[in-house]
């Protein structure tokens, strides 16, 4: 996750800025999960659990570290200027990740609420193997990160909107897994990207629903296949990548 490649436009360059900030902190990237016997995956109840972890987590990368960088010297620093320029140019209408990133960098709860509104009103749909899988990743990260804006619990209207977002992410994963679970003569172009989106999305979903546990188990299996292919010298996007 720390090295996830995102390209195109101000929104995604802001995501790259977060990766840069994480590198500057020297913190270890962490995910709130653990493997279980039998191939299952257990995720923690606390958030954030993707890329960042809660403040009290020893050795983890946190929102607070990033915000300290952003606000250093009263905001007069190279990192704040660079990220600030991306924030000003980003279009929050394009994806919830734009406002979610703004929230992570600044701590402004109004921005977290805007990201939630986008997920409640916007559309997330799996469009097949040859389309941009990163859309699913943007939603998963946004969904995970904005929970931290309400440490004592989100207001009722926000909870309802987050449930809508949860349903859309889960549907995206189920639809994508149909392709990943299919029987094909070879790996296919885009498989690793779709597998990454499904895996990240599954980690973002609530920890206490058996259906989501089963989705995480399936997603973990596909992600492990991609890692094994890469380690063995194979091209994890499939033999048709250059075709």
TrEMBL record:
SUPFAM superfamilies: Chondroitin AC/alginate lyase. This is Alginate lyase domain-containing protein. InterPro entries: Chondroitin_lyas.
